[in-house]
Design a protein that fits this description.
Length: 467
Amino acid sequence: MIPVPGYENQQIIVLGLGRSGLATARALLAGGAEPLLWDDSPEARATASAEGFTIHDPLKHDGFRGVSLLVTSPGIPHLYPKPHPVIRAAWQAGVAVDNDIGLFFRAIATSEWADFDSPPKVVCVTGSNGKSTTTALIHHILHANDRPSQMGGNIGRGVLDLDPPEDGEVIVLELSSYQTDLARALTPDVAVFTNLSPDHLDRHGGMGGYFAAKRRLFAEGGPDRAVIGVDEDEGWYLANQLAEAQGDDRVIRVSSGQKLTGMDWLVFARKGFLAEWRKGKQIASVDLREIQGLPGAHNHQNACFAWAVCRTLGLAPKAIEAAMHSFKGLPHRSQLVGERAGVRFVNDSKATNVDSAEKALLAFPSIRWIAGGMGKDGGIEALKPHLSAVKKAYLIGHSARDFALQLPPDIPHEICETMARAVAQAATEAEPGDTVLLAPAAASFDQYPNFEKRGDDFTALVKALIG
């Protein structure tokens, strides 16, 4: 735990008592504050009360009197589509609103860091897709090279649940737009922008607000080095804003699919090969095609981001390449579950939107595609140009019939409704060389509480099938 200083004997309201909320409450208590906890869920309040915390409804009995700060969990809307009533009440009471990310950066910015021989560094990864894999891959490479490292944020442990950093340690954080949008302090040493595609638009008032939330990590965070994906215009714009001139190596531009040129620091992947260029000269080249934990162009993009971060942290090319080969990938993200009779079964339950599903569909040559769930605006219409490898679609969940109507007429499909039926049917019909791919292109909430449970169900069914 990282205790939060600066609020000794002050009342701090914590709104939202999930993983990050409870970790925040414990960290505030450890720093000497008096946390007052609230959640709209009676079950969450009961859990917090059983741990000994004070439950306090901020909307009753002048609930913000004497309160110094409101700390809200990232899943709670603070502006769009409309502010949570407690957050609006805090504004009206003149009480500042922050989140655990803001508290984290305040907590680690202490004079004690001057006593380290090698001050710890914080790497933050944001973007629409690839954040989790990039974060985990950086952490893995550092660990494989005996560099002390912790991983948290939107993956693994909450930021305030991490251990206080030690000499020379690197803290690698995945940050969502919900987290970067509200944090009152953002001071990473290295910041990564992976890519941008439409997602969470209701929470940000459209694409402009969504990009603005990501951009805060760079514009207000002022990182020493920025690693920017330039496969969309927003990335080019951000890189251009951050660089003072050509060859400014504080900005590393990254791409998957296009060759980058110029005197800048560049890392890109084309046709399965990663290349690093600096000041017009090639520094390194790596064949990514045989790295099983990083299949497909989208994972090659993730590899480029991790490579750039680890290079700026001082690791040698050969050390990074060796560590990549031992990376097993993350659950629910192009995860190879098993193989039977030449048929591979891949779990990409994290593909909850068409952009991430597209990347999964382009990663394999012959696909039995399991898709469906709670479809998002537009369904799978945007995937039509990317279905050439699909031999048949097996559709599940609430949007199964809507997805069926959007499939090209030359792609066979079957409405299976349930995961169990889809897995069984796809496995029965699959031939050697096929990949049975779960890439739903939809949210899970019609049948599962989250994408992890959906992926776990697929994994359990496959393992039972292949023995």
